[in-house]
Structures are given as structure tokens and as C-alpha cells.
Amino acid sequence: MESEVDGILVAAHELKAPLAVLRQLALSFDEMEPEGEKIRSEMVQVSERAIKQVNDLAKIRRLENGLFKMEPVAIREVCDEVSRELGLLFRFNNRDLYIKYSNRSRLVSANRELLYSVIYNFLLNAMHYSSEETKSELVVRESGGRVKVLIRDYGPALPIDVWKEIRRGWLKKPTSIAMRPGSSGLGLYIASKFSKYMNAEVGAIRHRDGTSFYVSLPISKQMSLF
């Protein structure tokens, strides 16, 4: 299993350079007509998202060295930042994102960089499975003495085997999800690895009309100072 993951990391590293070149080529074009500008913008965004995922994969091996410091993190700020970054993508695809915060505890114990990637991957996944008639949902609430970030989509049902593996708390390896061809099994794998490192719980709730992915985080003890 370790050699399989190492192979993925090597392949990811090899992909980073051509992705960066693709992004630079898209940016180098002279000013174009509106339709051309739209295509160029999409090329830049796709390459940037792919580079971000490659960088996340590279972090997986670094988890073993404990290089990511745990600290109090303002969960709403992280969610706001992720939603702003992906907001353009939602608008570009004529998709809506509903956000609701009901958590009283504002700080969680996490690594901000890793937590950002977890929420980013879940929300990007949800964007693929919303439509002009449905809304992706990002909800932050408290449950069982923890803060839960829940992201709801309206796509095809999550396969039982994948659901069970996520319910157990992690994915052993990147998983192709045949019923969800636009879904990133790689993104779910990254989210599960990062969450496990942070002592956070990940899971998925199957609905008749979609899936909710969530990460449940311990409340920061620093809250007691206030």
C-alpha cells in the first residue's frame, strides 16, 4: 500500500510542471473576444485547481514527520476563505452555494492549511453535483461537543462500499467513484488523510437525492480563556 501511495506521489510531482506551463500559456495569450476570455479563464482555473491537488498530495508524505502544527483555528474564517476562492467557479457554472453558521464555539483545534484543503475538496466535490435547480450547502454547527462542517450535494447516491470506508474514518487509497464521474475520489482521499492527522472525524451521510460529507473537529481548549 505504501509503495502504491509513493507511486501516486511521484506521478503527481511529474504532473506539476506541465500544469504550471499550461497555466502560463493560458495567461500569455493576448486579449481575446469575450468567449475566448471565458475559455482562457477556465483553463487557468482548472490548471490552478489541479496544481493545488498535486501540492496536497505532496503533503501526505510530510504528515509522517509531524510537520503540520496543531493550533486554534477560526473555523468560520476558513470556510469564508474557501467559499470566496470557489465562488467564481460556482458563478461560472451558474451554481448557488448556501452557507449557514450556527456554531457558538468559534475556534477548533486543527492545522489551518490542512483544514482549508479538507473543506476545499469537499466543496469542490459538491459543486460538481449541484445544478441550476439545486444548491450546494455549507453548514457549520456544533454536535456532540465538537464543531461539524457539513457540505451537502445533490448528486447520485454514494456507493455503499465507499460510504462504509468513509464512515470508518478514512480511505485506504484514492478511489474511483463510477456513479459519480465528476467526483474527485482523489480529493476525498486527501481530505480523509488530512482529517486523520488532525484527529478530526470524517464521514458521509447518504440521502435519497445526494450526499453530505462532513468533518467533525475538536473545540479548541483556548476557548476556555474567554
Protein architecture, described:
With 226 residues, the protein is of the alpha+beta class. The protein folds into two domains: 2-63; 71-218, Heat Shock Protein 90, CATH 3.30.565.10. It is built from six helices and seven strands, in the order H-H-E-H-E-E-H-E-E-H-H-E-E. The strands form two sheets. A five-stranded mixed β-sheet has the order 2-4-5-7-6. Strands 1-3 form a two-stranded antiparallel ribbon. A hairpin with a 2-residue loop joins strand 6 (201-207) and strand 7 (210-218).
Structure summary:
The protein has 226 residues and is α+β, with helices and mostly antiparallel strands. 50% of the residues lie in helices and 21% in strands.
Strand line-up in the sheet with most strands: 2-4-5-7-6
Instruction: Output the radius of gyration.
Output: 18 Å
Give the assembly state of these chains.
single chain
- Fraction of residues in helices? 40-55%
CATH superfamily of the largest domain: Histidine kinase-like ATPase, C-terminal domain
Give the count of helical stretches: 6
How much of the sequence is in beta strands?
A: 15-25%
The average pLDDT value, as a whole number, equals: 78
CATH class of the largest domain: Alpha Beta
Count of the domains: 2
